[in-house]
Specification:
With 218 residues, the protein is mainly α. The protein has two domains: 72 residues, Arc Repressor Mutant, subunit A, CATH 1.10.10.60; 130 residues. It has twelve helices and no strands. The longest helix is centred in the last third of the chain and has 28 residues.
């Protein structure tokens, strides 16, 4: 009988010990975020080829093997960086966030324009340049970026272009045929600022706004 009385207490003690050993979900998410943020800094400073998981761990302030608990390879870590630092822009332009009756042009100015104004400061432009410069040696970077960022964004813009034509907002059908026109100035600005002329950087936000003025009726 005494043994039976001890079982609930023993079970509780075992559960407490388990909780002490296992990190909380909040702690796990925080560590993961720290690793991904450190990886972004490492990739931008050293490039993908020279970056190492050990260096990422040092930047994040975690043990050398900790990044591998979350990301089995450097490619998987890069994918997480793209998702955390860049793919959020796709969420902002999601058509589900468009208010009832809101014109497409106004929606793009409300969602994409603010993102383009800080694209350089937030490191998104630099990460895109990393894909451009190292994508030939590491095609997986291009595949990750295309799958996580480029294709979803282009699909959203394609739908919005058709909606804009139906609403009579466009100056021509060019945007419906080539939705890439919306992001072409962004990519030109990214290439210009990092590769063509770093001494005279372009305002990518202004380029995007000007492009909207050219494509949409006011």
């Amino acid at each position: 009988m005494a043994a039976l009385d001890r079982r609930p207490s023993e079970a509780r003690n075992g559960e407490l010990q388990k909780r002490k050993r296992s990190p909380s979900a909040e702690k796990t998410a925080q560590t993961r975020h720290m690793i991904v943020s450190a990886a972004l800094a490492e990739f931008l400073e050293r490039g993908f080829a020279r970056a190492t998981m050990e260096a990422v761990a040092r930047r994040a302030g975690v043990a050398k093997g900790t990044p591998y608990r979350y990301f089995p390879t450097k490619e998987a870590l890069f994918e997480a960086v793209v998702r955390q630092e860049i793919a959020s822009a796709v969420v902002e332009v999601n058509v589900a966030n468009r208010s009832p009756g809101e014109k497409v042009g106004a929606f793009l100015r409300r969602t994409m324009s603010p993102a383009m104004e800080v694209v350089e400061r937030q490191g998104r432009a630099a990460l895109a340049r990393l894909v451009l410069t190292e994508g030939v040696r590491f095609p997986v970077l291009v595949e990750i970026y295309r799958r996580e960022m480029f294709d979803p964004l282009l699909n959203q813009l394609r739908y919005l272009a058709k909606s804009a034509r139906e609403g009579g907002e466009l100056k021509s059908d060019a945007l419906v045929d080539h939705p890439e026109l919306l992001i072409a100035p962004i990519w030109y600005g990214i290439v210009h600022n990092g590769l063509l002329d770093r001494s005279q950087p372009l305002d990518i936000g202004a380029l995007f706004q000007t492009n909207l003025d050219l494509l949409f009726d006011q």
